[in-house]
Amino acid sequence: MTTETALVEKYGETLFALDAPERNRLTLLGEVFDPLSTATLTRLGVGRSARCLEVGAGTGSIARWLASQVPGGEVVATDLNEALLARLTGPNLVPLRHDVTVDPFPESSFDVIHARFVLSHLPGRLDVLRRMSSWLRPGGFLMFESFSWFPIDSSPHPAYRHAMQRWSELILSTIGTDSRWSRALPTVLAEYGLADVGAETFTRHMRGGGPLAEFWWQTLRMSRRQLIDGGYLTTQQVLDVQRLLRDPGFWDLAPAVTQAWGRR
Prior knowledge:
The protein has one domain (4-263): Rossmann fold (3-Layer(aba) Sandwich). The longest helix has 25 residues, at 20-44. By secondary structure, the protein is of the alpha/beta class. Strand 4, helix 4 (125-134) and strand 5 (136-148) form a beta-alpha-beta unit. It has a seven-stranded mixed β-sheet with strand order 3-2-1-4-5-9-6, with helices on both faces. It has ten helices and nine strands. The chain has helices at residues 20-44, 61-69, 82-85, 125-134, 150-153, 158-175, 185-191, 211-222, 224-229, 235-245; strands spanning 51-55, 74-79, 93-97, 110-116, 136-148, 195-202, 205-207, 251-253, 256-263.
């Protein structure tokens, strides 16, 4: 298992660094996954006067949605990138540069805490999760979303399976991302004393050329140089998976999404 001291860099230094293609990828991420996120948040119940925390807000689509649900409340939207935060405006929307791995909030600060595709990227994720749970007010809930990699292992398409597995190995060895950790999420939430713990995992078929396949191609393309220079994939293997993911005749399962939640 890769240790934190052996990691090459932090999230956003070269992998996931904010540039024009990454902005487009983040926009596509919102288009593909926002309906799933907002449906579960709605079911869990976001009160109209709730104070909410959106961790790793990215392009801000969920933060804006939360702000629309809490006309009498407030949404604190955090990110490491000030350029992304500059786009977050609204009467009850507060952008804040904040590193969730080291920066605190007072205990009992929020009624709702949400983080999507954040925790798996953090080598110290268990400590972060423990601290975040203390930021909840009594009765408040937190909800985390992460990718679950298991559909990749049984893919009948060798080019797709190999490229995705090798990409997962790259981001694990470089920044510490664990693409398989999310299945432990509900157990961890229960161990940290949260009540009403629940979890669901969603698998989706994707078709080549569709939005979900394009999201995953953009994700692989973002890392193209590191994949090839590091010996994870050859140039031909990158071209092969690009062809598949843009071929309307290609159907396969995308990485699953696990959602887990608990209430203080």
